[in-house]
């Protein structure tokens, strides 16, 4: 099977993996009191937001090739759909 076929799935899995690694790192830093735990019961929200803020730029830089492959896959699907719609419209116009 072509690697292009699963570009979106691969990008999503890698992005989720980077987030999980960042969350584990942030959790470990909070556990050892290197970073603050948050205020009151906001610990989980604080850790999630911090992991998102860290993983977003990492994903942007590290997953450039996967993002480009996913973009090509989406563009190809949109082009095929446009061609089907145009063919359907031509067929309908032929009936009138």
UniProtKB/TrEMBL annotation:
Annotated TM spans: 12-32, 44-63
Top-level taxon in the UniProt lineage: Bacteria
One Pfam family hit: DUF4229
InterPro entries: DUF4229
Keyword Membrane found: yes
Keywords, ordered alphabetically: Membrane, Transmembrane, Transmembrane helix
Protein name: DUF4229 domain-containing protein
Originating organism: Streptomyces chrestomyceticus
Upper classification of the organism: Bacteria, Bacillati, Actinomycetota, Actinomycetes, Kitasatosporales
């Amino acid at each position: 099977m072509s690697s292009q076929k699963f570009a979106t799935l691969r990008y999503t899995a890698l992005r989720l993996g980077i987030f999980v690694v960042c969350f584990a790192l942030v959790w470990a830093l909070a556990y050892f009191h290197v970073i603050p735990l948050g205020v009151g019961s906001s610990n989980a929200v604080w850790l999630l937001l911090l992991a998102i803020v860290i993983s977003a730029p990492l994903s942007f830089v590290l997953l450039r090739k996967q993002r480009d492959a996913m973009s090509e896959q989406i563009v190809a699907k949109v082009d095929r759909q446009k061609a089907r719609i145009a063919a359907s419209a031509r067929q309908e116009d032929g009936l009138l």
